[in-house]
Amino acid sequence: MNLLRTIRLDPSDTFVFPVAAEPGEWAVPGGFVFWRRNVEQLEGKERTSFRAGFLGLASLGRSTLVQVVSATDADRAAAVEQLARQLCERFGAPDIETARRAAGEEVAFASSLANHPTDTLIAVRRSVEDGEVREQFRTLRRREGMSIPRVFDFAEVDDDEPEERVDLAALANSPAKGSA
Record's InterPro entries (predicted)? Predict the structure, then answer.
């Protein structure tokens, strides 16, 4: 069987979500987190979490992408148990058995999304249409012979440092170093 694990190809999740999932956590779509919220009024990082985040089970952080991985029955049971504990501790499930049933359904749904070759990446897009939440999932596969690419490169900038600017036009018109 296959399950979903969080993956971080660049540091963007740490910028766009209130809490970013750590790479390698078991993951589920996690739309249930928003059931009792008015999602049309969400702003900023919470809105981004709703629109494009999978839920990491250990941290309850969000991940833009998840990776399809091969899993054992023990892995599935561990993911269900981890989510069940979170449902009791953080979401007010009435008891562990009720939480396990709900967690089992959520992990089964995640497993159904993982019906792809291992290493396939999956992204989610949530929206509200006619008052109902819609989820769309898309797959991203590696091209034959290529490793997983970095989607974006970010440079962390210390706010105390002066902003660095590069004049590309001037560089293009200047003679190359070492040329005569």
Answer: DUF6505
